[in-house]
C-alpha cells in the first residue's frame, strides 16, 4: 500500500517512522518542505511539493496538521490541484472543530476524494510505535478501506458513525486530558505567591488519589521535556471545544478559561514547548509579583 503523510510535525514525523517499519511505500508533504527532506531521505520516502500531487500518487493520505485553517488550506490545495482522484482516501487525523471537519469533507468529496475523519488519542511515542487509539467516522462504503489503513498505526479503532462524531469524542476526551497541567499551574502559582514551598503539595497529597496525577506531570512541568504536544496546540484544542459548544448555543466556561491560560503562556514564548510547561509561565508570574511586593 502507498501511504502519504501531510504535515510532518511532531505527530506526522513519528507516524512516518511507524509506517516505514511496516514496509509501506511512503510519501511525505510538509508546508515547509525542508523539514520533511531529512526524514524523507532517511526513510526512502518521496517528498511532494503539494498535497494534491501527493494525494494523486497514494492509496491513502493521512493529514496531521495544526488546526481548522491548516486543514482547510490543505483540503483546498488538494481539491484544486487534483487531476484524477482515483480511489484515494483522505484521512484527517488532525484535531479540529466538528464544523471544520465537515467543511473539509465537503471540499474533498466535491472532487471525488473519500473523506475519513480519524482523530487519535495518544502522542508521539504511540505514533512511532504504531499504537494510537483511532476514533473513526466515515461513510459506510469507505469503512473497510479506512479500517485497513488505520490498522497499520492503531492499537484500537472505534467506529462512531458518520462525521463529525469521532471529532466530537476526541474533543471531549482532550477537554479532560489537557486540563490537569493548567490546574497544576494555578495551584503552584498560588503556593508561590504566598511563599509556600511547592514540594508541600506533593508531600501532603502522598497516598491520596492526587499523588499519581501529580507524579505524572511534576517533572514534565518543572524539568525539561521535549515537546510531544505543544502549549499552542493545547490552547487550540480548547478553542475548538469552546467553538463547538458555542455553535450549539451552549456555555463554554472551562474551555474558554483553559484556552486563554494556554494561549497566554504560548504567546509569551512557550508556544512550541511541551504543554505541561505552562506551569513555568504561571510560576514566573507569581515570582514577578513577589519581587514587586518586596520592592514596595
Ligand atoms: N502531538 C500530539 O501528541 C497529538 C496527539 C493527538 C492529536 N494531535 C493533533 O495532530 C495535529 C498535529 O499535531 P502535531 O503535534 O504534529 O503538531 P505540530 O508539531 O505543530 O505540526 C503541525 C503541522 O501542521 C503543519 N501546518 C500548520 N499550519 C499549516 C497550514 N496553514 N497549511 C499547511 N500545513 C500547516 C505544519 O507545517 P510547518 O512545518 O510548515 O509549520 C506541521 O507540519 C494537531 O491537530 C494536533 O492537535 C497531536
TrEMBL record:
<dbReference type="Pfam" id="PF03446">
    <property type="entry name" value="NAD_binding_2"/>
</dbReference>
<keyword id="KW-0560">Oxidoreductase</keyword>
<dbReference type="InterPro" id="IPR036291">
    <property type="entry name" value="NAD(P)-bd_dom_sf"/>
</dbReference>
<dbReference type="InterPro" id="IPR051265">
    <property type="entry name" value="HIBADH-related_NP60_sf"/>
</dbReference>
<dbReference type="InterPro" id="IPR015815">
    <property type="entry name" value="HIBADH-related"/>
</dbReference>
<dbReference type="GO" id="GO:0016491">
    <property type="term" value="F:oxidoreductase activity"/>
</dbReference>
<feature type="domain" description="6-phosphogluconate dehydrogenase NADP-binding">
    <location>
        <begin position="2"/>
        <end position="161"/>
    </location>
</feature>
<dbReference type="InterPro" id="IPR006115">
    <property type="entry name" value="6PGDH_NADP-bd"/>
</dbReference>
<protein>
    <submittedName>
        <fullName>6-phosphogluconate dehydrogenase NAD-binding protein</fullName>
    </submittedName>
</protein>
<dbReference type="InterPro" id="IPR008927">
    <property type="entry name" value="6-PGluconate_DH-like_C_sf"/>
</dbReference>
<dbReference type="GO" id="GO:0050661">
    <property type="term" value="F:NADP binding"/>
</dbReference>
<dbReference type="InterPro" id="IPR013328">
    <property type="entry name" value="6PGD_dom2"/>
</dbReference>
